[in-house]
């Protein structure tokens, strides 16, 4: 019975490291400036809302969801090349067709609006449930705190996957490489890895006996995710840019 | 290669040495003063009067000492207490209530030691509490109030003692009692029988006049606590039952002439926390009740009216009336019954009772004897200081007592000063009582702290040895290139764990770290395997499935302190009462699985001797007929094991078998547990030897034919051990083994590198330890399965069973790790490679089979052990153990000063021991049978 699994494994393809270049931010002054302001804005939003978050996690997480999404969309729209603009190998893209508009401005807007809308949609219907499930698998409470966990998953999704969908679209091969950690490091990919690692490390202080209010679920996880995002984005965009996670 | 073996051997030999050295430094053996105390010449004729050499007359000559195990203060004094008679005595002034602070460890044996000797038992007593050896921990040679009563001359000769209840007393005081009837807490579910066995002796003993002290120790209330917590509906009826016993005894004291001078003491040896457990140092656990009762007490209580029931001093805590030390019981009994204070006593005579003596010289003498006895202990500790019984000048003392800043004095100097102020007031008749109590209290405080002094040099040596182990094993590791995810994760886990050692709250919450690290590792395995082999149904990827199983496993038992009592799967009610068939269905499935596995091994062993097949094939496959015979052969064994579990649970945790009714259950409960357990163990041994013989025969056969083949002994041994561990596991935890087996299966599907296998093993040994409901707290040690198949006490056998039943998870995963490393768990089929080329198959199929076959050969090579993988496994294990030990020991040393509770330090140390025993043994149980 186990042999079938082996055959399957045998039949599947071995992924090759991506040959694509790391995502470069757009080459204009607004993009160069805003890419550094953006993490500061995100962190300030979080820091500003932190006391409220500790006091009432659910409504605060719900309330900051929209501002965070707006910030993230603004970031990708201003700084990042939309999917297709980036030099990725495109084979087929279900659900996305490049509109052939007459006006130059309209085309530019369309080329941004469609991926932005798509990334928001995918973040909401695919990434959020997936990340919430992952949170549960990692030990999030099952019988209580449902909204807490769901909103926590949504925040992590907006931080990590929204920009990724915007720049990479829904190309299956690229996403396989994303999951297999084979993409070259850039701001967006660094942000994803940073967010996920940060959320994971955020669980460490929960069992400590400091008896602080902020040790409650899911404050530390969200905090870890935000800080991880900022750190990962910074490192991915500068120090580690273009590097790939490889083991010899 | 040889050097590496030597290094590893040395490192592993050093592990127990390091633990031993550290443990002796951390839990020093405290010398005690031998011999019985006697009344001695005091001097001070001018104060105490001439020729008084007789001690003051004692108000009581008989003692009834009633210990109710885990009698927390609020069970007697609180508003919801069921002990209304005791409360009425408190209001009448014929009972004096206290809260007696019990120092941790709050378990019975050290507490009994504290109550009877007046000293603070060292941590070693905790371990002895479990060892229960007859010789090492006995108090027969120590000075206790029992020994004093036995030595005292009463009207009718030397004192006589009788004892009914917990047999801890019989073990501590062998041959002390005229009559005794010991009870054991064998089944915690026994709430009534264990107490009735004590109570039935009470009426007749109250009519006997030949004893001078009667000791009773009731266990039922503690059992209720362990089973259902302090809020259990059984708690109030049990308190009422205890109250009725108190009423009977008190009425007898009032009415019987020969009991008229009897002091009646009721106390708890420790309390319990909100979960009903004890062992730690939370307020609930350290606050047992202490009540002195006698009609004569009105003499000392007439001035103070006491209310009852009352509220505790602080809401949510358990301090009722005055908080005294448990060790104060010994000197108080000495004063009230008229015998010398035991030698090693650190208790203080309770000042409420001083009113029994009208003459001031009697009072002074009584307190002075108590203080002088304590002074001797202080003197022995601070040998350089002077504790003379004459007034000294500050020149003779060597330092200034009074001064602008009293904080410059060391502990010893402060005590010396207090002692001299006592001597001063003896001379000039100052406020003697005030000064002498000040000295005694301070001495008690200082010396109790000194009781857990550490031997710093040994601590250093132990830590240094652990570091050497790290160093030695580090050099045995093969090169770190290539860098692998497993290598990185191993390093990170070890480093992070070492750091977290210093966060002392992670002592109780250690499980969270392991659960967290294991989840992360499974995710890491998922990503790593995805990049090697894209798996299209990724939701059902083995690593994800293993993670899902892990998620269920970690919720099975709630452990640790922060969320103690929180809901978990076991306690959620899905296994209780009428639902218990769910549990038993899962348990049945677990046993079924193991039956099928064992039957395969037996079938294989039968096939070994199949002459017909042997002519044709080198490797004899078992036929259907063999399988049938195999199943029939194992069924009795597994069936007996299952019935044993059912019968044991019906006695140990009846709430888990409620759903199973009918004649089968009635038959099961009549079975003899010891016999059943022996049958299981015997069956395991028999099957094990038979399979070993068959495998040996096979390998001989293979060698003769010069062929290669697979041994199956390791897997068979693993499955037999699993059945043994099931027998040693509580019923509600048995389904966990089904989940472990699932995880093991998923892990075999992943192509793990040797380092990854080692890391997985290490993480899962830890996870399984905590998932089975254990923790670093000593109170979580489960003794219920330690007497399986043993009719009388034997240290070695019981110790082994205790170890195996508490470390069952780590043992399971250590062995599973060895199988994973040798690729034993993989689907195995013997394929003759030469046949493949002849057969006319399609190319792809051939390639696949070729690969399968090569996998087989490869894993066989690994198993034959060029040594590389094994050495790496053992090396990593040793490095891990060494690293943990070094971290634990260093953390202990650093935190030693901040531990005001030696308990946490103890936990740290226990963890060190656990590591030494658990993982080290696991690591060394390497597969020589592979």
UniProtKB/TrEMBL annotation, chain A:
One of its GO terms (cellular component) is endoplasmic reticulum membrane. This is Glycosylphosphatidylinositol anchor biosynthesis protein 11. One of its GO terms (biological process) is GPI anchor biosynthetic process. It comes from the Eukaryota. Pathway: Glycolipid biosynthesis; glycosylphosphatidylinositol-anchor biosynthesis. Pfam families: PIG-F. It is a multi-pass membrane protein. Signal peptide: none annotated. The keyword tRNA processing does not apply. It comes from Clathrospora elynae. InterPro entries: GPI_biosynthesis_protein_Pig-F. The chain crosses the membrane at residues 33-54, 60-80, 117-140, 146-167, 188-208, 220-240. Keywords: Endoplasmic reticulum, GPI-anchor biosynthesis, Membrane, Transmembrane, Transmembrane helix. It is found in: Endoplasmic reticulum membrane.
TrEMBL record, chain B:
CDD domains: GPI_EPT_2. The keyword Membrane applies. The keyword tRNA processing does not apply. Residues 451-900 form the GPI ethanolamine phosphate transferase 2 C-terminal domain. GO terms for biological process: GPI anchor biosynthetic process. Belongs to the PIGG/PIGN/PIGO family. PIGG subfamily. Ethanolamine phosphate transferase involved in glycosylphosphatidylinositol-anchor biosynthesis. Transfers ethanolamine phosphate to the GPI second mannose. This is GPI ethanolamine phosphate transferase 2. It comes from Clathrospora elynae. The lineage of its organism: Eukaryota, Fungi, Dikarya, Ascomycota, Pezizomycotina.
